[in-house]
Structures are given as structure tokens and as C-alpha cells.
Amino acid sequence: MKLRAGILGATGAVGQKFISLLQDHPWFEVSAVAASERSAGKLYGDAAHWLEESEIPSRVAELTVQDASHVLLDCDFVFSGLDSSVAGEIEERYARAGYPVISNAKNFRMNADVPLLIPEVNPEHLGLIDTQKWGSDGYIVTNPNCASVGLTMALKPLHDAFGIELVHVTTMQALSGAGYPGVPSLDSLANVVPFISGEEDKVESEPLKILGKLSSGQIQHDSFSISATCTRVPVIDGHLATVSVKLRKSASPEAAIRAINAFTSPSSVAHLPGSPEKALQYSDDASFPQPRRHANAGQGMTVSVGRMRACPILDLKFVCLAHNTIRGAAGGAILNAELLASQGKIKHRSEVHALN
Ligand code: NAP
Questions:
Q1: How much is the pLDDT for 350?
Q2: At a CB cut-off of 8 Å and minimum separation 6, what does 247 contact?
Q3: CB of 263 within 8 A of CB of 279?
């Protein structure tokens, strides 16, 4: 029997991506959906302004949307794509009621006892779950901001091989990262908006937690410095970033490319259904990577890296790209849930009640 997933924020851009990616998932099925009181009481097919290319799965279209603020969904665990203005309170309520909460929202990402997880990078951080104190078996696991995830995955093999000392990054972020309806067309078309509220703080802090070491039940954040400029560009999906790094141990571009090409997922992650064949791909093509051509690599779960070269100011520079609503949101959260389920940390709720 499949584990039953509830989707909080099911009508939004990320919520819809969950529903689309979970169709025919081998382990999980969508059993309930919730959003704001604006959508509550309607059939999902009527409430959602559907943006995905595939049709709404008919079983989900017929579910009645519940008010996320006032009910607990009938499910074994929840994925949250809630707006951050409400995610904190609602996710906490689920954790206190004993549900595993797999969240995309920013609210709990930097809490000391909450894993900020990229399964290929820091699976051991799941140990933090045992330190959470909600008064129940519930817990919260988060995935990174959609611009942090590609940067962190590209930095991981370089950090392991050479040590990162400084990072200077400029992001060019897709419109779908702002949700629906998102950025007004007169601001976004044929334009670049040089500011995304709150984004630079996340890109400057989240990689340090993710690349930190778990010791005695606590994460020691890494201490290198990141300077970020985040911009919004008229691209639909895929956040591109140009990155310059200073390394602790000098390395040629060729050695850095070898480190990226040698990166493999831990065996506990590689066999999961949502794990891409390659978490990182590198190409020597001078015009690689591009959002329109490469954001969907590995069903949107592969991070693409290109243009590794010497940097005249720091040591090396490169370009990286991640699909923001898949690797940077719903797909990343589903991989997190698969890792948890493979470790027996998501159970059928009847089993949870029987154990208690
Ligand atoms: P979105 O399209 O604006 O969707 C927001 C969702 O939250 C909708 O389902 C909305 O329901 C619900 N909601 C809003 N106010 C609510 C309330 N008062 N009570 C209950 N539900 C409420 O946003 P999104 O882009 O999907 O982002 C969702 C979350 O994921 C955000 O926290 C965002 O920061 C994060 N995230 C997004 C991306 C991305 O690439 N888009 C990537 C990573 C993380 P209604 O439709 O009923 O209003």
C-alpha cells in the first residue's frame, strides 16, 4: 500500500508541481489537498489555475480543497508548498500532531534542529530529527531555497577536494520562482529586475548550513564567505548562476572539472526513485548550460555546470543551472521524503497510532 501524501499549498506553482511529479509515484499517492480559504470547499480541478503541461490527474481534480489553517488532512505525511506568511504556524501544527512535514518554505530552514537537506550532499543531517521536540513523533525537514540548491551542489565537490574560502555569485532567476501570478508582465518582459526580496540572505547563509558538519546532534555551519546578487530574468523555469570561488588549495580548471565529474550520490540515495542518474553534469560546450535547453536534465533533478575557467580576481569561475520548481522545490522535497521513507521514518498513520 502506498504512503498517502497530503499537499499543503496544493493550488500554487510548487503545489502543482508536487501533484504532477507524484502522479504514478511508486511509493506515494496524493490523498488530500489544502490551500487558503479562497480555494477551500472547491474541487481541486476548479480551484487550481493549472500551469503544468500534463493534465491534472483525474483523481486529484476530484478532491475537495480543504482550508490549510483549519483542518488536519487525512494522510500519512505532508508536503508543504505554503506561502511563507502562513507556513510557520501550519507546519508546526502538523508536526505537533505527529505528522512528518516535508517543507519548501523558508520558515524553519535555519532552525538549529531542522535538517536543511539535499540528499546527495548532507543525508547525515537527518540525524537532527531525533532532537526535535514537538511533543509527538512529528518532525519537519526542509529543502533549500531554489537558488541555493544549484550553487550548493556545484560547490560540494570543489569544497571536498580543495576547500572553499570565498564565493561571489550572481543569480538570474526564472519567473516561476515567484509563484503564480508572480512578477507583473510589465516588470518582467524584456527586462531584468535586479532585486528579489530576502533572496540574497538565503543564498549567503543556506549553503553554509548544508555544507556544515553534524557533531553531537548539532550542525557546525561552514565558515567561508558568500557574496550574492540575485536578479529576476524573463525565463520560465531554471535558475542560472555565475559563480567565482577562491579555494584554500589551488586547483586548475581541469582539476575542478574532474572533481565535478567524479561526484556521485551516496548509495543510500542513488537507488531512490527520484534520484537522477547524475546529480551533477558538466559540459565543455562554451554555451552550456542554458535554462531553456538544460533545466530539465535528469527530469529536472540534475544540476548542470559549465564554463569552468580561471578567474583573474579569485581562483576559478563557472556557471551553474538548476530547475527551480523541481530540484529547487517539489522534486527536491520528494527526494527528501523518499530518503526518509527508505529509512522507515515515514509510516502509515495506522501503524503510528498502533505503536503509540
Ligand atoms: P504560490 O504559487 O503563490 O502558492 C502559494 C500557495 O500557498 C497556494 O496554494 C495558496 O493557496 C497558499 N496560501 C496562500 N495564503 C494562504 C493562507 N492564508 N492559508 C493557507 N494557504 C495559503 O507560491 P509558490 O511559488 O508555489 O511557493 C510556495 C512556497 O514554496 C513558498 O514558501 C516559496 O517561498 C517556496 N518555494 C518556491 C519555489 C519556486 O520556485 N516557486 C522554490 C522553492 C521554494 P490559494 O491558491 O488558495 O491562495
A1: 80
A2: 158, 162, 163, 164, 165, 315, 316
A3: yes
Q: pLDDT tens across 10-52, in order?
A: 999 999 999 999 999 999 999 999 999 999 999 999 999 999 9
Are the CB atoms for 241 and 169 separated by under 8 Å? Answer: yes
**Mean predicted confidence (pLDDT) in 112-119:** 98
* 3-class SS of residue 228: strand
> What are the residue ranges spanned by the domains of the chain?
3-143+331-355, 146-323
Q: Among candidates 302, 252, 311, which has minimal Cα distance to 282? A: 302
Burial of 222 (0-12, 13-18, 19+ CB in 10 A): middle
**Could you give the CA distance from residue 118 to residue 275 in angstroms, rounded to a whole number?**
11
pTM, rounded to two decimals: 0.97
Protein residues with CB under 6 Å of any ligand 1 atom? 9-15, 35-36, 38-39, 68-69, 81-84, 86-87, 104-106, 146, 176-177, 179-180, 324-325, 328-329
Question: What CATH fold (topology level) applies to the domain 146-323?
Answer: Dihydrodipicolinate Reductase; domain 2 (3.30.360)
Please state which CATH number belongs to domain 3-143+331-355. 3.40.50.720
Residue nearest to atom 45 of ligand 1 (CA): 36
Catalytic residues: 146, 239
Instruction: Characterize the bridge pairing of strands 316-322 and 139-142.
Output: unpaired
Backbone dihedral angles phi then psi of residue 293, each to the nearest 5 degrees: -95, -25
How far, in Å, from the CA of 210 to the mean position of ligand 1? 23
